Amino acid sequence: MRRLVLMMLVISSSGAVALFPQNTDAPAGFDGQTNGLVDQATHAADQDKFEEVEEIKDGLGPLYNAQSCRECHQSPASGGNSQISELRVGHRGANGQFENPSIPINDGKAVITGRTLVNDRAICPNAQFPDIQLQERVPDTENIRATRMALNLMGDGFVEALADQTLLDLVKEQCGSPYGHSKRHRICGQALYAPILEAPGKTAVGRFGWKDQHASLLSFSADAYLNEMGITSKLIPDEVTLLCNTASEPNNTPDPDGLEDIDHFARFIRATMAPPRDTALAKTAEAQEGSKLFDKVGCDTCHVRTLLTAPAGTVINGGSFTVPDALGSKQFHPFGDFLLHNVGTGDGVAVAMAEHYGKAATTRTWMKFSYQDLQTAANKVRTAPLWGVRTHSRLMHDGESLTLADAIRRHKGEAEEITERFRRLKPKQKEALLTFLKSL
Q: Across residues 349-362, what is the average pLDDT?
């Protein structure tokens, strides 16, 4: 009953409780249509930017993983999930806390520091620089090693439009409730305040990335352009290395419309529709029974069914973005809480400040930001939203689970009691719950 109430009600920042407005469901679909934020022609043009293949003359690299945003966000459509994984490494220092790695390049003549990502590709050696060995390789000293899957981005405009208080209320409810949990395995999500790069000094509750390292889609896009493609921008203008670098900085410059590629990226994602349900399967008796068991077992404690965006006109992202009509007061169904949890699969890697926010960010004071919170979250990961999970072939943050049942069984830590309840279900009940998940 408690979880049903959470589905139906939203708690405002004033503490008042209101019913979700009628007929405000976020549009859903994999057909590439706009959610109404922009017209279809603009959305298609933004998608072209998202799918654009970057070349060395555009600023690609010097270190990179992909030549296009689409390479990592493509299944089943642009902006969707991916089977691409990335490598992150580091080590624990003498104080037991995570420390960023030192990655030698160019036969040890240079060292990459201040980031946890190890790029799989490099532009050198090439015809212009035949003697520079730029490829990163992990030294033995970096004994924390982890892979992470690229995340779905479709529907993230609605996630960005969530009020911070909505996420903080989830923390309060989870951490303060005795519902079905012992003190040992209490479910208690962690919210991190993340820097808003387009609003220097301002922060908001993080919700994007496996470590909730971003709250703004524009900040997220600047991070992705630099660290995945090596493309610098107005928000993060410094290269990871200047070796082999021939393009001027920042690589990304405004188009005639005044927008950079990162602006088009952010607008494209903001205009995507949410991942849709398999409605035919969802209507079956087995899936409907599985839906009830999903709640009964307690999966919906973290995989929250329904959330409501802030009203249109609400100013977010440190004053840099106003929630538009297309995103405002929309209920959507992510089956996730966008909070950090320790479910026994954490990789031990803490967010690297310079990597995700740029070198200049390390010298700036950010409201409500805590370096220690980043360390506290090292063994935590963001709850994986289950919308669109039927399109994923590899599950969990590391992609190491190949079946839904295995993914459930891997849940330990905060989720250990939930996992045990699943184990105690009868075989037909387990199948019903799995059928429900396959409808998402």
A: 97
Short-list 369, 371, 395, 402, CA closest to 381:
395
Q: In three state form, how does the secondary structure of the chain look? A: CHHHHHHHEEECCCCCEEECCCCCECCECCCCCCCCCCCHHHHHHHHHHHHCCCCHHHCCCCEECCCCHHHCCCECCCCCECCCEEEEEEEECCCCCEECCCEEECCCCEEECCCCEECCEECCCCCCCCCCCCCCCCCCCCCEEEEEECCCCCCHHHHHCCCHHHHHHHHHHHHHCCCCCCCCCCCCCECCEEECCCCCCCEEECCECCCCCECCHHHHHHHHHHHHHCCCCCCCCCCCCCCCCCCCCCCCCCCCCCCCHHHHHHHHHHCCCECCCCHHHHCCHHHHHHHHHHHHHCHHHCCCCCEECCCCCCEEHHHCEECCCCCCCCEECCCCCCCEECCCCCCCCCCCHHHHHCHHHHHCCCCCCCHHHHHHCCCCEECCCCCCHHHCCCECCCCCECCHHHHHHCCCHHHHHHHHHHHHCCHHHHHHHHHHHHCC
The 10 Å Cβ neighbour count of residue 63 is 30
- Cβ neighbors of 89 (< 8 A, separation 6 or more) are 101, 103, 116, 118, 138, 142, 144, 145, 146, 349
Burial of 253 (0-12, 13-18, 19+ CB in 10 A): exposed
pLDDT for 28 equals 98
pLDDT band at 176 (very low <50, low <70, confident <90, very high): confident
At 97-123, the pLDDT tens digits run 999 999 999 999 999 999 999 999 999
Q: With pLDDT > 70 as the criterion, what percentage of the chain qualifies?
A: 93
Mean pLDDT estimate for the chain: 93
Rounded distance between C-alpha atoms, residue 304 and residue 383, angstroms: 10
How far is the first Cα of the chain from the last one, in angstroms, to the nearest whole number?
Answer: 22
CA nearest to 374, candidates 160, 119, 153, 116: 116
- Is this structure's pTM higher than 0.90? yes
